Amino acid sequence: MGTKTPSDSRLSRNRATLAHKVRYAIGHPGRVPAHLRRAARDAWLRARYRDDHIGYYRAVMASDAARSPEAAVGGRPSYERWLAIGQMQFDYLLEHGLRPDDRMLEIGCGNLRAGRLFIDHLDPGHYYGIDISPHILIEAKRTVVRHGLQAKLPHLTIADDLTFDFLPEGHFTVVHAHSVFSHSPLDVVDQCLENVGRILAPGGFFDFTFDRTEGREHHVLREDFYYRTETLTDLAASHGLTARLMDDWERLPHGQSKIRVTLPAPDRAAAGGPEPERSPV
């Protein structure tokens, strides 16, 4: 079976252009009213929050969560799709060696679409989920109860930035962010990459997904951001991190791409040797 990768047309598409919007509206007339609602909300929230993207997107999440907690995490999925995307994230990390004794931070944990599976797999107290939305964290706590995960003692905490200043140095062996940078301007991504190395344990890694373009970088409203791969890998490198596109993720039925960030091992970096790989169990 051949490797499934994003098509050249999808990777070069600029969704911010008027021509694309017209073509999309003609091809998907049923989605036009929802987009117009989003555009009106975007105009109001831009005026209200201006340069505060965290406040802006927290309001977006509050609006979406009021309509549907599942739809607030991942767009317009059915409940079955919500389950499938969570399972896909879990299975991927399990195949990459996620162990019960790993200490995991999930950035943008949402209502625990994948987090419920991580919590169940990890040792008690080893899952730490953060999100900017108090509304979605309430739904996350309901997910914990619904799936009987209280004994796993998950930490669920609100955050208003990505400095991680309240978290210990070198603690997390796995940091994970799914569909976070796809909704983040570059300064938010930069803040995360500037600080994530401090909380990564030796040999740990940070996986994040993003909306990928290999054409012109752009955003739709202030909700969906499209980046070139080298923009993000170069940004990671500027903070002393090693980053690479995860080709095996590209084979999965998901519209985003994934990058893995690691800290160079000092002894190997000095010798110019390869980075150690984490072995699956």
Automatic annotation (TrEMBL):
Alphabetized GO MF terms: methyltransferase activity
Domain Methyltransferase type: 105-206
GO biological process, any: methylation
Alphabetically ordered keywords of this record: Lipid metabolism, Methyltransferase, S-adenosyl-L-methionine, Transferase
EC top class, as a word: transferase
Domain of life where this protein originates: Bacteria
EC nos: 2.1.-.-
Family that this chain belongs to: Belongs to the CFA/CMAS family.
Name of the featured protein: Class I SAM-dependent methyltransferase
Organism: Streptomyces chitinivorans
